[in-house]
Amino acid sequence: MSPDLRVAPPRSPQVELGGLVLFARTIDKARAKAAGTAGDYKIGPGLSAYLLEWLGIDELAFGAALAAHSDDDAMVRWLHANTDAAVYPSINERLRIRALRDAEHRAAMTPVYPLLAERPDLSNWFEILDYDDALAFGLPAFAAPRRYVTFAGADGIAHGGIVAGPAVRAFPADVGSLERFIALSPSERDAALVAVGAPQPLESVTLLAPVRPAKNVFCVGRNYLAHAQEAARARGVALDVPAVPAFFTKAPTTITGPDTELHLDAEVSAQYDWEAELAAIIGIRCRDLASPSALDAVFGYTCLNDVTARDLQKAHQQWFKGKSLDDTCPIGPWIVDARDISDPQALNVTLRVNGEIKQSAATSAMIFSVREILTSLSHGLTLEPGDVIATGTPEGVGFARTPPEFLSDGDRMEVEISGIGTLLNIVRIRERVGGGAKRAPAAVV
Q: What is the mean pLDDT of residues 324-341?
């Protein structure tokens, strides 16, 4: 079916289809032009011409493929059969960094895109195109990255909303929560964003955990090779690299929000440890995801800290108890739209304790990519909107250090992920009555 660009814009250039950004938008514009449904929408070659050129695709061949293949899946199969997928990451990066860096170029393009004079902060063409679409179709012009939050205002009631510059705007009352917004169809989400409330200064609201899923948080253990290596050394065992993702879960009662105190108890554990992680939030009900399109099921990404009681983890042999104490899964501060994270394997994850870097790694170092995790987890298992999937922690956890390090009362933990933001929490440990807590040998995930 051809999109009607007289009533709605093409897909964002940041939407990834078949491993390529801009490809979905190029398809939408070409189909609308062929069907006569482009209206007044600008259909100049622009960035799409660069995309086809760098892929080595002739424009006539691309048009013929569109005529022969009526859906996205068929076009992705054609793309993969006729191009070299190895060049996709470099093409994506070249497209993302194309920007109006010099004043002369910007001045020349301002008559075509008047918003360039209004918004000097928009320098990347993807941001410019998204902003221009928002203005043309009466959508709120939220600059990328789009950040969705759950917050409490002066009324003390939790609301879902979107960050707009230095403010937050609540979803309309018929949507209400971020969980309900995530469960909407893409067109329903767009409609909700048109009807958001008045801006409220961010400093006047309290950010809460973005989502609270009804089921356990899905997690992946030992998903960075260097972390698996440090764990093996600390345990005095041979390295065992998993052949498939090692899944476990955390109870939903572990979840807490950004800028909160984590209320822990020395009577329960003497070995509280940190684990910074990228978390994916599911956006559709799905099962048996195919690897090429698995990321399409992701609504967005956020920061997560898988705080772990190492002594309980070892004592119970199975990971659930040591991973499921209250207040041991802070997430936030918001969820960044998946369309604004073109490659979840091109991020950097950092954890600091009292300002000192303890963990720092690129998500490209994952043993199993986010795409592979989703494909494996969904095989025979239904995922639902709002499900949280923690993708594993890099090296640098406390128990594997020499000597081992564990969290203390008053410690300040920060999980920072490039392109997303920083999740801050303060540790509060209630001391054990009658003396120090006993320390047992540590275990690892």
A: 95
With CA atoms as reference, report the closest residue to 395 among 426, 424, 362, 425: 362
The tokens for 364 are 């490209």
Tens digit of each residue's pLDDT (9 = 90 or more) over 201-253: 999 999 999 999 999 999 999 999 988 898 778 777 888 888 999 999 999 99
pLDDT tens track for 160-196: 999 987 789 999 999 999 999 999 998 899 889 888 9
Residue 85 CB coordination number (10 Å):
12
Transcribe 137-191 into DSSP letters. Answer: TT---PPSSPEEEEEE-TT--EEEEEEETTEEEEPPTTT-SHHHHHHS-HHHHHH
Give the E-state strand segments of 297-408 in sequence order.
298-305, 308-309, 329-337, 348-353, 356-362, 388-390
Q: Which residues contact 31 (CB under 8 A, 6 or more apart)?
A: 2, 3, 66
Contacts of 261 (CB under 8 A, 6+ apart): 425, 426, 427, 428
Q: What is the pLDDT of residues 35-60, one digit of tens each?
A: 999 998 887 778 899 999 999 999 99
Query: At residue 219, what are phi and psi to the nearest 5 degrees?
Result: -135, 160
Find where tokens 């009324």 sit: 155
CATH number for domain 217-430, candidates 3.30.750.24, 3.30.43.10, 1.20.81.30, 3.90.850.10: 3.90.850.10
Contact assessment for residue 218 and residue 247, using Cβ atoms and an 8 Å cutoff = yes
Output the pLDDT for position 434. Answer: 61
For 131, phi and psi rounded to 5 degrees? Answer: -65, -40
* Residue 114 pLDDT grade (very low, low, confident, very high; cuts 50, 70, 90): confident
**Per-domain residue ranges of the chain:** 16-136, 147-208, 217-430
pLDDT at 62: 95
Calculate the alpha carbon distances from 160 to 151, 201, 331, 335 in Å. 6, 15, 15, 11
Q: Where are the alpha helices (DSSP H) in 274-408?
A: 310-315, 320-323, 370-377
Rounded to 10 deg, the angle between the 23-35 and 46-55 helix axes is: 120
Please state, in angstroms and rounded to a whole number, the distance separating the CA atoms of residues 123 and 100.
Answer: 6
For residue 417, what are the β-bridge partners? 349, 421
Residue 9 phi, psi (nearest 5): -75, 165
How many angstroms separate the CA atoms of 267 and 364, rounded?
39
Q: 178 near 210, Cβ under 8 Å?
A: yes
Query: Which SS3 state, helix, strand or coil, does residue 253 take?
Result: helix
pLDDT at position 171: 96
Determine contact, residues 264/327, Cβ cutoff 8 Å.
Answer: yes
